Amino acid sequence: MKYVDYYQVLGVPRDATLADIKKAYRKLAHKHHPDVAKGDSNEEKFKDIAVAYATLKDPEKRAAYDELGRHPQGEEFVPPHQWQEQFRDNGADYSDVDLADLLAAFAAAQQAAARGHPQQPMRGPDYEVPVSVTLEQIYNGTETEITVSVPEYDAHGLLHHVPKTFRIRIPKGASDGQRLRLPEKGGTGLRGGKPGDLYIVMNIQPHKFYRVSGNDLYIDLPLAPWEAVLGASVQIPTLGGLVEMTIPAGTAAGRKLRLGKRGLPAPNDGVQGDLYAVVRIDVPKTLTERERELFSQLAAASSFNPRAQLNAGAPS
Q1: Which of 32, 39, 266, 295 is the most buried (most CB within 10 A)?
Q2: CA 43 – CA 51 distance, rounded (Å)
Q3: Rounded to whole angstroms, what are the CA distances from 189 to 14, 125, 149, 172?
Q4: Which residues fall within 8 angstroms of residue 49, CB to CB, at 6 or more apart?
Q5: What is the pLDDT of residue 90?
Q6: Which residues of the chain register pLDDT less than 50?
Q7: What is the distance between the alpha carbons of residues 94 and 238, in angstroms, rounded to a whole number?
Q8: What structural domains and CATH numbers belong to the chain?
């Protein structure tokens, strides 16, 4: 089935109050009502708004909807196994059903429970939480504390987001998007069911120096014109500390200079990637009188023409 973000449909945050939801619904329903706005697209929009409101205004349906977790709008997803177990007696076919029908099955199950039909314990849902990590953390591997907002049911069966702190181990060489599983730290179960799992999804923060390509790192290396022409020995910052690098004479802008095994470690075998310093020629923005004099002397003495090939190809 396709996921529909009802909060996005109504334009409200996930922690919106019932008053906020009603206010948003009234505004959108008036704007897209078929009697006000003509056209098939507005009619479909009006239906989506009505379904979203019908779900989010009902505490039980909203709790059930939140329990499904977050997904991109329109993404194909399968309801958790525990849902299928809970609602299997309602005749729901999850191979061809929309989200509204799924929540209707939830309402039917709740009504059956209210009439005294016993239901089995239900395991809590799994949740994914994104956490930002630095290149320095995944280079060395480290333990750190994170505080995340975890959905939990209160004594009345309503779903709330509760901040919790966990100590996690960021593995050496972890990749962007890699998931860490925290068993039974997810959503609370119903009727005595076990909690679900919490998955920490690691998002690597952009770095002020390095660009990541697999296990390799790239860094821009500014050189003065005389360093590029004459060669030099310069210090390069790496995740493991400063390293001395020899710049060959005649180094051109854009050249990639390789520092072997100074990149990120591979997550499985620990083999280190490489660090590539991409040369960029910087020129001084202001000159002293002596510097200007020396550059003028160089210009007068040198026969070097960087545009020789360009000029040779131009029509006479």
Answers
A1: 32
A2: 13
A3: 21, 7, 17, 33
A4: 9, 10, 25, 28, 29, 32
A5: 47
A6: 89-92
A7: 52
A8: 6-114 (1.10.287.110), 127-204 (2.60.260.20), 210-302 (2.60.260.20)
Tokens 């003495």 -> residue:
301
- The tokens of 70 are what? 């977050």
Whether 294 contacts 236, CB under 8 Å: no
pLDDT of residue 39: 63
| Residue 168, beta-bridge partner list | 144
Query: Where do we find the tokens 């006000």?
Result: 36
Could you tell me whether strands 179-182 and 127-133 are parallel, antiparallel, or unpaired per DSSP bridges? unpaired
CB distance 157 to 189 below 8 Å: no
Strand order in the sheet with 179-182: 127-133, 198-204, 179-182
Task: Return the residue matching tokens 């997810």.
Answer: 186
What pLDDT does residue 15 have? 87
Terminal Cα distance for the chain, rounded: 67
- Determine the Cα–Cα distance for residues 212 and 210; give it in Å rounded to an integer: 6
Q: H or E segment at 114?
A: helix 99-114
Separation between Cα atoms, residue 6 and residue 61, nearest integer Å: 12
Q: Which residues fall within 8 angstroms of residue 225, CB to CB, at 6 or more apart?
A: 281, 283
How far apart CA 42 and CA 37 sit, in angstroms, is 6
Distance, in Å, from the CA atom of 52 to the CA atom of 21, rounded to the nearest integer, reads 10
As given in the structure block, the two tokens for residue 210 are 């390095």
Q: Pairing between strand 275-281 and 216-223? A: parallel
The C-alpha angle 35, 37, 39, rounded to 5 degrees, equals 105
Q: Report the C-alpha gap between 303 and 313 in whole angstroms.
A: 19
For residues 26 and 28, give the distance between their C-alpha atoms in angstroms, rounded to a whole number. Answer: 6
Residue 173 near residue 215 (C-beta atoms within 8 A): yes
Q: What are phi and psi of 78, to 5 degrees?
A: -115, 130
